Amino acid sequence: MAFILAALGGVVLGGGLAALILSNRWKQQVEEVKEALNELAVKHQQEQEQNKELKQKLADTRYQLGEAKKDLAARS
After folding, report:
1. pLDDT by residue (tens digit) across 15-67?
2. How far, in Å, CA of 30 to CA of 41, rounded?
3. 17 lies in a domain?
4. Residue 56, SS3 per DSSP
5. pTM (predicted TM-score)
6. Scanning 5, 11, 38, 60, which has its CA 20 to 30 A from the CA of 45?
7. Residue 20: inside a domain, yes or no?
8. Backbone dihedral region of 45: left (phi > 0), alpha (psi from -120 to 50 degrees) or beta?
C-alpha cells in the first residue's frame, strides 16, 4: 500500500513539475511573440510614413511636370 501511495505521489509531483516547466516555456514564447509583433508594428508604421512621404514627393513632382509643360506650351 505504501508503495502505491509513493508511486502516486511521484506521478503527481512529476506532473506538477512538468506543468510548471511547460507553463514557463509557454509564457516565454508568448513574450517573444509579443516582442516580435511590436517590432513588426513599429516597422509597419515606419513604412507607412515613408510611403506617405513618397506619395507626397510624387504629387509634387507631377505638379512640377505639369507646370513645366504649361511653360513650354506658353513659349511655343
Report:
1. 888 888 999 999 999 999 999 999 999 999 999 999 999 999 999 999 999 99
2. 16
3. no
4. helix
5. 0.61
6. 60
7. no
8. alpha
